[in-house]
């Protein structure tokens, strides 16, 4: 557990042995800024070791630990329609362009500005049903209840500089650049960071019941580089206004740039938190919540009409000036370093250091 202070990173494990413990404290921001710490590293040295893959030197990990990793899906209209297209194609990218045109002709601006769960949303539903275009994705996109699912197991996320994995069986996939909220056990948003909720469009498109197969794989969840705590200079309204930039660079010279803005989200971020945590569900160690993305690339890469998909070796950079940059290299989940540091390993590590 460490705090970033200017050009240095300070070990504060003696005060807060885990990130989860820190988030429970009302003085978390003060601790990070001012509390006396132990060992100190130069931030540039940690970043260099992280970026160059040096695992024999101190380097950055995902900036969360005991929190449950949750994700909200279909929270933007643009990506909502792409989920409908995945479903209609049955996961076949070759059919995407034709179905995208058909849905655009019928839907048009019908969903623009519609508040989920409102009478207007119910009217849009009636129109889409009449056109034979109703979908389970539209239900969670404009219906009263959002989609919230468990993205990955505790401690399985990778951080910046790590490989990020897609299943070798997937031929239609993309990154999902998102703001990730860090929430304590009381349901209070305590901070924010960046995340890549890797999306396998072909697998989920075959059936929504394959969501776990599409979302929860080795190295398929990236979070980082740091958690920015909420304070007087960075509150929840600042989070609501964040723009997230995405850049993908392929080994073949391919480049793609995209942007996702939380200002265009269909449901407020606090509504998503309330749907996740409450009398119906508690998280004693807190949780993190991916808030969804606008990014659903339709630009062709491999073949006309098939849209974007990853190639081995793609560099994915997700960034925001206030949250830093999360940078990962795409490999297959089968080739990525296996997840080996679980809860037992963490407990042994903390006990060995005498901070339990």
TrEMBL record:
Pfam name, any one: FAA_hydrolase
Keywords: Hydrolase, Metal-binding
Positions of the Fumarylacetoacetase-like C-terminal domain: 188-331
Gene Ontology molecular function: any one: hydrolase activity
Keyword Metal-binding: yes
SUPFAM superfamilies to which the protein is assigned, alphabetical: FAH (SSF56529)
InterPro entries linked: FAH, Fumarylacetoacetase-like_C, Fumarylacetoacetase_C_sf
Keyword Metal-binding annotated: yes
GO biological process: small molecule metabolic process
Family: Belongs to the FAH family.
Protein name, per record: Fumarylacetoacetate hydrolase
Organism this protein belongs to: Streptomyces calidiresistens
């Amino acid at each position: 557990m460490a705090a970033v202070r200017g050009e240095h990173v300070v070990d504060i494990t003696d005060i807060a042995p885990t990130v989860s413990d820190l988030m429970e404290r009302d003085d978390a921001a003060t601790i990070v800024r001012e509390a006396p710490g132990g060992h100190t590293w130069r931030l540039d040295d940690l970043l260099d070791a992280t970026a160059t893959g040096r695992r024999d030197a101190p380097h950055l990990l995902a900036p969360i630990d005991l929190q449950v990793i949750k994700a909200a899906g279909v929270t933007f209209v643009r990506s909502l329609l792409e989920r409908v297209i995945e479903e209609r194609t049955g996961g076949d990218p070759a059919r995407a362009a034709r179905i995208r045109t058909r849905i655009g002709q019928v839907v048009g601006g019908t969903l623009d500005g519609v508040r989920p769960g409102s009478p207007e949303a119910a009217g849009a539903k009636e129109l889409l049903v009449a056109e034979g275009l109703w979908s389970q994705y539209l239900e969670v996109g404009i219906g009263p209840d959002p989609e919230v699912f468990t993205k990955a197991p505790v401690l399985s996320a990778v951080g910046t500089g790590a490989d990020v994995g897609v299943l070798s069986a997937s031929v239609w996939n993309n990154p999902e650049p998102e703001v990730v909220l860090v929430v304590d056990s009381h349901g209070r948003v305590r901070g924010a960071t960046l995340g890549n909720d890797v999306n396998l469009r072909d697998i989920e498109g075959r059936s929504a019941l394959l969501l776990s197969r599409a979302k929860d794989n080795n190295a398929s969840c990236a979070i980082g580089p740091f958690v920015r705590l909420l304070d007087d200079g960075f509150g929840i309204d600042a989070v609501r206004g964040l723009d997230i930039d995405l850049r993908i660079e392929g080994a073949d010279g391919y480049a793609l740039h995209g942007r996702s803005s939380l200002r265009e989200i269909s449901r407020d971020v606090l509504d998503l938190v309330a749907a996740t945590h409450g009398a119906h569900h508690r998280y004693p160690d807190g949780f993190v919540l991916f808030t969804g993305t606008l990014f659903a690339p339709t630009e062709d890469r491999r073949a006309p009409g098939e849209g974007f998909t990853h190639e081995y070796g793609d560099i994915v950079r997700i960034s925001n000036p206030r949250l830093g940059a999360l940078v990962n290299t795409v490999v297959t989940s089968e080739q990525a370093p296996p997840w080996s540091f679980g809860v037992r390993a963490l407990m042994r590590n903390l006990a060995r250091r005498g901070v339990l």
